[in-house]
Each structure stands twice: as C-alpha cells, then as structure tokens.
Write a structure and sequence with these properties.
Elements (H helix, E strand, L loop, with lengths): L6 H18 L4 H6 L7 E6 L4 E7 L6 E3 L2 E11 L10 H4 L4 E7 L4 H13 L13 E7 L2 E2 L19 H6 L3 E2 L7 E8 L2 E6 L10 E12 L5 E14 L1 H21 L14 H9 L11 E2 L9
Parallel strand pairs: 9-12, 10-13
Antiparallel strand pairs: 1-2, 2-3, 2-11, 4-5, 4-11, 5-6, 7-8, 9-10, 11-12
Length: 307
C-alpha cells in the first residue's frame, strides 16, 4: 500500500461496508464489540484430536453444539494464499506449519477498530499481539494436520490450491488435509441491485483489496503454562477491488511517464496487442461490490458466506 493507494477512500469504504454488514450479521466482530449479547451461551470445548479449545455454541434446546464463525471486514495488508507453484528445498521440513494466511487492516477505520476490540475481548485471558501502526487482524489456516486418529479423513487438495501436487508430495504419509484445514474463496457480485457470492479462485486476491473474512477462534497451549489465542481463516470473499486496481493503474502510469522522460528517442514499433484500460475496468467490476451496493439486499450462492 504505497502513495498510489487511496487509504482515505478505503478507510471510508470499510466504515460503510462494516456498518451495513454488521446490521445483518450478528456474528460480525464489529457488532459483537457494540453488543456482547451475541456471545451469551458460548462455551469453550476441548478438541482432543488437535489439542486446542474451540468456541462452541448451542443453537437451540437439545441441539448439538457447533463452532462459532465470526466475520471481519477489512483491506488485505499482507497475504500468503494459494496456489503453491514452486517447491523449495526447505519446504518438506516446514510443511506442517505452512498456512493459507491473510492480514486485514482498517487503515484507521473506526468500525474496523471495533472488530479488533472484539477479538481482544474474546481473547482477554490469552495473548494478542499487534504490529505497530494500524491495528490488524491476522488469520491463518494450516494446510495439514499430523495424522492422528483413524477417523480423520485425508481430503484431496483442490487444484486451485496445489495444481502441481507439490504440497501433497512434500507432506508425505504423516500429514493429512482435513475438513478443518479447508478455506473457501468467494467474490461478491451485484445483480439487479442484490448482492450474492460466487465461488472464486484464491489467486484473484491482491494486496489492498477489501474483503470479508469468516473465521473461528481457538486457544492453544504454548510453552510453559500459557494459553495463546489463534484466529483460524475459514472463508475469504472479495467485495471491492476498485482501490487496488486504481493504485495499480496509477503506479504503471507513473513508471511509463518516468521511462518516457529518460528516453527522448524511442524506436517505433507496432504491437499487435495493446493495453485496454476500459477492458480491465470491466473485468474488475465483475467481481467488485462497490460501496453503493453495501446496503443492498444480499443473496447467497454456494456454501460459506452468508447473511
């Protein structure tokens, strides 16, 4: 996020999107910060298979408990997302810790700060570290778990995640990819003034995109007698790519202007394929839910992101 990225515009857009989303989603972190009644009835249960404690809730009398899934809205400040296209010498030793990860920031958005405060409240008995500067939320989900009990089904990694089979090969027989390791990817679309989500490929996300992330919270034992809170990424949805695309165009334009000033004489050359700004904008809009549509009625397509 450099000088070409409209941080002020992104901050305002995040405020608008969070306000609209939190009004409909009782599990949005910003709403929980304002109204903690959404946390009533939550219990912490031990998952002995992976040795962590999960936040669980019973939806109704006699119903089974299910893991709480929270929503956060922000701009991507850092990410490490699939696909994995290249194998490195150290990958085999690190495969147990490799993750799909994203860091969200609000760039000073007051609504985003509410999400941060909600996480701090959830983890008040654990530890929560934030980088200097703007507050951020770090979400990740490892690709694999160590092979444990027989009931842990080893799922096939999606071709969008592991197109060349690198992860599966370096994982060997001692690691399994389970349902708990799955991350779903979506993009928001506006059709007939209604917003819906469709499946997307993870490689479409860029630094600076505004996204909605669904996550769960677990508590892990750390060295000594301490307990550490971790935020687990479950789903990621692109809702606005306008600012990252505008910054990219401005950045390329700056490079072009600089090159023309240093090269007063240029060889003429006719190119068969020319850059079309209109074409890129049209492509961007197909997966861009702009702020004017933030308060529209929302429909759901596919599993994972709901209102």
């Amino acid at each position: 996020m450099d000088a070409f990225y409209d941080k002020s515009g992104v901050k305002s857009t995040i405020d608008i999107l969070v306000e609209a989303r939190a009004a409909k989603d009782p599990n949005h972190l910003s709403r929980i910060e304002q109204d903690s009644t959404g946390m009533e009835g939550i219990q912490i249960d031990l998952d002995g298979d992976v040795q962590c404690w999960r936040l669980m809730m019973q939806k109704g009398a006699g119903d089974e408990t299910e893991e709480m899934i929270f929503t956060a809205t922000g701009a991507i400040g850092a990410m490490d997302l699939p696909p994995v296209l290249k194998e490195t010498p150290s990958m085999k030793d690190k495969v147990r810790f490799m993750s799909q990860a994203v860091t969200l920031t609000g760039l000073g958005s007051t609504q985003f700060e509410g999400s941060v405060e909600a996480l701090k409240e959830i983890g008040r008995k654990g530890e929560r570290e934030f980088r200097q500067g703007y507050n951020a939320i770090e979400l990740l989900n490892r690709y694999f778990h160590p092979r444990g009990k027989d009931y842990r089904e080893d799922l096939t990694l999606s071709p969008d995640v592991d197109p060349n089979g690198i992860l599966r090969r370096v994982a060997g027989d001692n690691m399994v990819h389970t349902e708990d390791n799955e991350v779903s990817y979506f993009r928001g679309m506006i059709e007939n003034r209604k917003k819906r989500y469709v499946k997307a490929k993870p490689q479409m996300f860029r630094i600076g995109d505004i996204v909605e992330a669904q996550c769960s919270v677990v508590f892990m034992k750390c060295k000594g007698a301490g307990i550490r809170m971790k935020v687990i990424l479950r789903a990621l949805a692109l809702v606005n790519c306008e600012y990252s695309m505008d910054a990219d165009r401005a950045r390329r334009k700056s490079i072009t202007i600089g090159a023309s000033m240093t090269n007063s004489q240029k060889m003429k050359r006719k190119i068969g394929f020319e850059y079309s700004d209109d074409e890129e904008i049209a492509e961007g809009k197909c997966h861009n839910a702009n702020q004017s549509g933030a308060s529209n009625e929302i429909e759901q397509e596919g599993n994972g992101m709901e209102d």
